[in-house]
Protein 1
Amino acid sequence: MSEAVERAVRFVREEVRPNLDRWDREARYPREAVAASGLTGLFCPRAFGGLDLPFPEGMQVFEELGRGDAALAFSLSMHNAVASAVTRQGDEELRGRWGRRLAAGEALGGFSLTEPHAGSDATAITTLATEATDGWRISGRKAWVSLAGEADLFLVVCKTRGEPGHRDIAMLAVEREAPGVSFPRLYRKAAADFLPIGEMELDGAPGKVLAPPGQGMRAALAAIDVARCDIAAIACGLLAEALDVALGYARDRRAFGQRVLDLQGIQWALADLATDLEAGRLLTRRAAELLGTPGGPVAVAHAKRFCPDAALRGAIACSEVLGAYGWLHDFPLARFIALAKMLQVVDGTTEVQRIVIARELVRRAEGLGTG
């Protein structure tokens, strides 16, 4: 086990599990605990104080975080995407102002692509950045913004011309405290009251170009591919923890004169979940190895399509092993069901992953010889 993975295991054991209920009651994001985790610069260069992890090792970190809480793990995924982009793609001024702070967790990063009218159809965004004498100004409304109102720096994907299409899309860095930035709505969610996700209003807000017009969508999709792989790993962690909860309960609970774990129906159900977990880990590992290569997007789509679905099936099945107790908050399975549903939709829905996979199948079909 690497040092980074050990950090994640320790963070879950010493911070997440003991404090999760309190974070939810207080509805406050635990930024001090996150900063102290040592997991805020996973993919940042060492020159900025980051860990510069290879992607497969990073996915092991996210699997362990998924065992603790998938919503907190998701927020760390988004933060690390921003931190990596700024330290690797930002200009000298942006890196100098934000690079080390993001890598150390002293500042938090949020990502903003989706709009109220533009979810899976990302090219339909209308938030507009215009270049003025004093720099770029952004106007529009964003939805499903990670760490809304909490992050210090947001990467905002926006148009630079009024006509439809994606050839003019840019990505700009926007500071939370900048004039013209507000967060008029935070969403009420099925779980994770501590995690602020909501909408961001931009009214002539100043922005610093990270990816210039014409390169913004490509940069956004590259970041999202890493995030989708993170989500697959988080889903594996959720499924692994759900399976352990069900195994422990079935070992200790007796029914009909024997342990629940000795009932063949229970064994077979849990065996299927164990196979799903192994398959998910293999898909995630393969996707992580291919990130940044031509085969990366499809490999990531396979992992992102399979793993959250398997996590939701598994959380439900494990809850059923506990009978009525699976419905209680004495165990984490009811929460896991809600969080697995979240994992299905963040960073691209299951259906969007099928579209990515199907496009590759069409290309493959067109290359086949005729019978």
Protein 2
Amino acid sequence: MLAELSSFKAKDIPYSRVLSSMCTTPHPIAVKAHELFIETNLGDPGIFVGTWELEQKLIAMLGELLHNANAKGYICSGGTEANIQAIRAARNVMRKKKGVDKPNIVIPRSAHFSFEKIGDILEVEVRRAELDSNFKVDVGSVESLIDENTVGIVGIAGTTELGQIDPIEELSKLAVRLNIPLHVDAAFGGLVIPFMDKHYPFDFEIEGVTSITTDPHKMGMATIPAGGILFRSEEFLNALVVETPYLTSKYQYTLTGTRPGTGVASAYAVLKHLGYEGMKQIVDECMRMTAVLVEEMTTLGFEPVIEPVMNVVCFKTEKAEKIKYELYKRRWVISTIREPKAIRFVVMPHVTEEVIKNFISEFKEVLKVV
């Protein structure tokens, strides 16, 4: 049986040949923590009491990193679930406060595809604001789309395609003035931006931010699944509550019922083990490797769409899809974006100088045939 399983696993492409994913090889301490908590189910916290207590410590740790040690939330399956819960909470709060019955949200055109699912699941109209020349959301466009039925606006801190950071401070001013919840999707950037040399305001230090998505299974190097949703106050978490009469807890605010404790344990272990300085070293190295990749690609005649803000970079080319296809045939994985046409790279901790060297060697061969 194990031989059969291994034969299937061997078909997977190893991370050492993946330059498109926002996930990475888990940190060794995360793997040990995962194994220790492998049978836990946070869907019934009265049984797994210690695991639940650990989750509260992790939420406080993440909250403190994001400038609110009193933040409320939980560890979930990933950014999609976190975004669903953020908008669901905002919709429920605004429905109670203002009686909104035909809700809409305003998001940037650069927002993650999870918001497509949100519109369908929550029956919320999704309105898309335009981007400026730097691929940040245009705040004027956001304001023009808001009306009396708007239950939330969204800003991105680390866009999926370019790693760009929206003007969260300006969105916050708008949210505060109009008394509308502001959700920040920092699924990727939440565990990158706090460790960067340049300060980018994006989190609870900004008055109008009511919720933040951040995923420890991305740059936090936790085991999958380990997403996270944090709220500024308990009001929004309470808006998600349903009664659970046959469990050891009386109510539940999560989207899923059964919920593994492995993500909690592995995320906590990595952050506790590395600390702020250790995480900063990881981010600094990813930024260094991003600079190495940019230098190599520039030498080959490729121009970045924007100068990398974080460890995500795209290079303009009309042959993006052909390049991606030829690389995949050679078991190298990159991705593409459509506006503008470009090839996209995410420089995660597994992308070392050796990986870049091997990739560039193969990439030169691909350029001969596209």
